Every structure is written in C-alpha cells, then in structure tokens.
Amino acid sequence: MAQLWGGRFTKETDQLVYNFNASISFDKKFYKQDMEGSIAHVKMLGRQGILTEGEAQEIVAAIKQILQEVEDGTLEISHEYEDIHSFVEATLIDRLGDTGKKLHTGRSRNDQVALDMRLYTRQEVLEMDSLLEGLLHALLTIMEHNTDTFMPGFTHLQKAQPVTLAHHLGAYFEMFKRDRQRMEDIYQRMNYCPLGSGALAGTTYDLDRYGTAAQMGFAGPTLNSMDGVSDRDYLIELLSALSTIMMHLSRFAEEIIIWNSNEYQFVEIDDAYSTGSSIMPQKKNPDIAELVRGKTGRVYGALVSLLTTMKGIPLAYNKDMQEDKELTFDAIDTVKGCLALFTGMLSTMKFQKEKMEASAKHGFTNATDAADYLVNHGVPFRDAHGIVGKLVLYCIEKQAAIDDLSLEELKQISPVFGQDIFDAVSLETCVEKRLTIGAPGQEAMKRVIALEKEYLCKDWKESITDWEAELLK
Length: 473
Hints:
Blueprint: H1 15-21, H2 24-27, H3 31-47, H4 53-71, H5 84-96, H6 109-144, E1 150-155, E2 158-164, H7 165-190, E3 192-193, H8 209-215, E4 220-221, H9 225-230, H10 233-259, E5 267-268, H11 287-310, H12 324-348, E6 350-351, H13 353-362, H14 367-376, H15 381-398, H16 407-413, H17 421-424, H18 427-432, H19 442-457, H20 467-471
Parallel strand pairs: 3-4
Antiparallel strand pairs: 1-2, 5-6
Helix pairs in contact: 3-4, 3-6, 3-8, 4-5, 6-7, 6-12, 6-19, 7-10, 10-11, 10-12, 11-12, 14-15
C-alpha cells in the first residue's frame, strides 16, 4: 500500500479499509489535470522563491516526462497507490529523491483534488457544448429543407393543428440551444481556481494564487479557502444541466419511436441506427432511441445521488465528497455518447413527407380553421365550434377528410359554407396564414432559421485561450 502519510499512525491500514478508501481506480481519469495542476503550482513556487529556480525546473521537467510516459503507455498508473496524487508524487520522489518531496509545498490533497475536478469538468463542459452545437447544426439542416413539409401538431398525443416538420423540430432546436447556454453559464461560474486553499485555511507560504489561476485559464482564485475545497455546486449544476439535456433527448427519442411505428410511418431510421429481432424477421427496432430514453434515468440518478451526498456535510472537506467523481464521470460519458449517437441517427433519418401530410389532412387538424371560417362569416364562435364538431363526426362516419367533402355536403351541416371554404381549410392555407414570429408559416420560419444561423455563427468557446499549450511549453 503506497501512501504519502503515516507518521501519525503506528500500524498499517487494514487492506479492506484501504481498498474502500482508495480512489485511484476512478480518479486516474484526471491524471493529466493532476499533473498540469502540479506544473502550474511548481512554476509558481519557483517564481515566488519558495523553491529555487533549478528545483522548480527539475520538478517540472520530471512531471512532463511522467505525463509523456503515461500517455504513450510506457508507464502504468498502478493501483497500489491510494489516489492519482499519490501516484504522481511517489513516482516523482522515486526519480528525484528529496527534490521530488518538495512538490507538495504549500498545498493539500483537498485543494489539489478540487483543482483536478474543476480542470477536468471544465474541459468536459467544452466538449459537451461542441456536441450540442453539432446536434443543432443537424437540426437546422433538416429545418431548412422542410419549411413546407406539412404534418400534424399534437396535444395530448391527439392531432390538433397542422404545422410543418421545420416548425416541430424548431421546438427541439430551442431546447438544445438553452442547453448550450447552460453550458456557457456553468463554465463561467465554475471558472475559479481553488489551488492555494490548502486543507481548509490557506497556507503560510507566500503563494501567488492569481498567477496560478491565470496560468491555467481561470478567471481568478476562489475567495474563501473553506468553500474552495468543499464546493461541489458546479458539479450539481452540471448534473442538473445534463439531466435537462437527457430529458430533451428522451422526449425527442419518444417521438421518433412513435413516428417509426407501423401506425405512424413518419420516419425511417437508417439501418446503421436500428437492430433486428432474433426471431421476427420483419422487425426493425429503434434501439438507439430507446436506449437514449432509458439512460435518462441513469443521469437523473447521478444528480439525486450527489445532492443527497452533499445535503448533510459540514464545512469543510469530508471524505463523502469522493463520491462525486464516479457519478459525474459516468453521467458525462453517458450524455456525450447519447448526443453523438442521436445526432448521427437524426442526420441519417428519412422523413416520409407524404405520410406526414396525409396524417395531418385526415386527422382534422384544420377543424379550428373551419370554425374560424364560420366566425369570419358572422357565426358566433360557440355556435361555430358546435357546427364543426358535427362536421367532424360526419367525416368520421364517412371516413373522409373535411377537404374531401362536396360543397353540398358541407352546406347540409351549415348553409354558411361557401366555395371559399376549401381554400380556407387547405393545409397550406392553415399553416401559411400563421405568420407571427414563432409560428409555422413559411415566412415566419425563414426569419427564425436566419436568426438560428446567426446564433450558430457565434461560438463563445473562441474566447477561451489555449492555456495548456503555454503551460506545457
């Protein structure tokens, strides 16, 4: 059992206790961030005269070599160490002797792991944003090509009014756009450096916390050392945002599953994103959409688990907080995988436009417009509502759409109907006369698409400097 503490203890930790306490099996995931944080810390110690310039350069060179060996596979992160910090420091001491023992000057594992987790999570937020951006581009492409693809809009899963595919998918564009905005918001709020907080009360060494923060691309240092080591709000915010992403994906997946059914036949999922049955040769199952829907609960679970872990923890650091990592790592990996697969599935999906239009036409989605027609011809709305209700009942009995009836049949329901009713209740008219911003009319949709294109041209990540390249020089 390789550990960096023990002077206070008179015997070895029980192996079972050691294994239960150890975190290297999962915190090795941020080995790079741990070493980058150590490099920034040591460079600062050298600048401040806490270490000699020669000592700082020697330690930095050795850490870079360890990092290179881990990345090219010539050095394995051994599970004999308690955590990733112990592995790096012990390896450094093996190579540099007493000089290596100076690495930990002026810091604690408490502020070290807080830093590692922020660095790791911050990078994952950027990658999540890029995946969301890719999904938005895929959605916008489909929207641009389907401003005149008519389909039923639903409430209560009942056909309600005609819309277009562009308009329907535009609702998801807005959802995922808000998800991106949350990523930016989380990044800005979490982008403060806890390094230098020590165990909980800072340190007596003359550290330059502003310098190390700037060196690693942070907006500045955290302003309270107790909060610096015990804050997990940014992870809770991230898991909440990831849960919202999964909720949006799950809603979309549910619709695709319904649209893919034999009863709807609105879409055909590409073979690459479908599976078959081991017994029923006719089956083509929407497994990717179903798995995305299923994995939503897994991400929700991570959020609830971390909230529950944090709810009773007094200041400052407590070992309970070690539980944040596996939950967050799994949630991040799950959401990234779902976003990548969902984007691929959506980009290759075929939309059955004729089926969609026929469904809108035969679902009486133009019934509201028929009532509006009567109102515009002097019939009180409540009477018009009743007349069109009878009209729909007649159509159901005849198994016909409103547009399929003759003028004589319409006049039997209400003499107010004239020849112009057919134009008034056509799907094209029903959709195109809705021109207010946010409505499905083609001109309104074109204005929205132009705005969404403008939004996607602006990338907030472009303002983030490449601090890693500078640090690792």
